[in-house]
Amino acid sequence: MVEFDEVRQLISEMLQLGDRLGKLGPDAPLLGSILEFDSMAVVALISALEERFDLHIADDEISAETFETLGKVYEFVCDKLRAGA
Question: Which domains does the chain have, with CATH numbers?
Fold first, then answer.
């Protein structure tokens, strides 16, 4: 199973945030709170999640709520993996 730190690290690397995400927990806000996390970053993150965790994310599974916090992104990935996505 995927670890929270793996998802946090992927987001940090993708957005080139360095240590800014390093100590943030599951409740850390993303969408609307991190300047670098714009609509293009969401698209890039979806692609990175698919590639890194061997997932397929359908358009109808994507919502702003999914990218609201680090924890919600992590939960989304875990749910997809449990479902065999």
Answer: 4-82 (1.10.1200.10)
